[in-house]
Amino acid sequence: MPKKYVGKNILKVDAREKVTGKAIYPDDIYFDDMLYLKIKRATHPHAYLRRIDISKAEKLPGVVKIITAADIPEVKNFGLIIKDQPVLIGIGQKMRYMGDALAIVIAESKEIASKAVRLIEMEVEKLEVISDPLRAMEKDAPPIHQDGNILATHYLKKGNIKKGFAQADIIVENEYRTSFLDQVPLQIEAGVGFYDEEDEIIKLWAATQWLHDTQADIAQSLGLPKEKIRIIQPVIGGAFGKKEDISVHIHLALAATATKRPVKLTYTREESMIAQSKRHPLIIRAKTGATKEGYLTACQVEVIGDTGAYASSGLAVVHKGMYHCTGPYNVDNVNSA
């Protein structure tokens, strides 16, 4: 007979390990001879990088190596859906948000790596900061990407929208706005990387919500077959959408390959909030027609999503927002964009 669960007290499979502290999260993992990474990030949310000087940082005792874009010309952009985010910003390239990475510092300790990051000097050419999607869509707005500021446009049409509104006894029109939301999982982004020289495999202990997609994205960025990337999933420590995007993974892979030693990268909470994706804010302009009996006759909705500096999951989010615009109701006449 099938087991019955309703009304039963069911033991959560990972509850005991978590409440006793035995669960292994990414930042708990340690190897002998391990090196530590810190990332030099953008100093302005929209600017060209004109100069970067790592000479002082390189001379700091305990610094093993510093990787910049000049060291990895063969590495490609990455991205959850569209490959539009650089692994490192190079000279002459554009910073598009404060989370953009400019250099990977590899050192004998986290403290040394953090100090070295502060010694890196740079010059930037500042551009207008675009923080509002309505401003981004204006004709005179500076382009964030070469192809413009509109990532995608979707349309949904069903029935006859004019006929639907003509049938309505009441029409309600409003604009609604949701805000940026950081998911704030308890475990911030962290991971350990190791290059297995015998099998020529990069091994990563780092949490992700899309294990095989993350593996494929790392592989295409580094120009490697997928089987050369192995991700061992530790306890994820909460995600809620925040760990869909790549975070520490490619930087760990590059550092492990360059040094042939185990490497660890753990974000600070501040860094996590700056560098990783957020729940997308939306502007929803809705016009709804209904009869006196309470039947919906027409629904016309415009959904504008702000996906930030890079595509991330923005394509899917705004697409779902459009298709979910009528909520749980069956409406015969719909016009959504």
List its salient traits:
26% strand, 7-stranded mixed beta sheet, Aldehyde Oxidoreductase, domain 3, Aldehyde Oxidoreductase, domain 4, alpha+beta
Tell me what you see in this structure.
- With 337 residues, the chain is α+β, with helices and mostly antiparallel strands.
- The chain folds into 2 domains: 26-127 and 183-275, Aldehyde Oxidoreductase, domain 3 (Alpha-Beta Complex), CATH 3.90.1170; 133-181 and 278-336, Aldehyde oxidase/xanthine dehydrogenase, molybdopterin binding domain (Aldehyde Oxidoreductase, domain 4, 2-Layer Sandwich), CATH 3.30.365.
- Helices cover 21% and strands 26% of the residues.
- It has helices at residues 15-20, 55-58, 110-119, 133-136, 161-166, 211-222, 249-259, 269-275, 314-323; strands at 35-41, 47-53, 63-68, 94-95, 101-107, 121-126, 156-158, 170-177, 190-196, 201-206, 229-232, 263-266, 282-290, 296-305, 334-336.
- Strands 3-5-1-12-9-10-11 form a 7-stranded mixed sheet, sandwiched between helices.
- Helix 6 (211-222) packs across helix 7 (249-259).
- It starts with 14 loop residues before the first helix and ends with a strand.
- The mean pLDDT is 95.
Which stretches are low in confidence, meaning pLDDT under 50 for 5 or more residues running? none
* Sequence of secondary-structure elements: HEEHEEEHEHEHEEEHEHEHEEHE
CATH architectural arrangement of the largest domain: Alpha-Beta Complex
Rg is 24 Å
- In the CATH hierarchy, what is the class of the largest domain? Alpha Beta
What is the oligomeric state here? single chain
User: Residue share in helices?
Assistant: 10-25%
Under CATH, the homologous superfamily of the largest domain reads: Aldehyde oxidase/xanthine dehydrogenase, a/b hammerhead
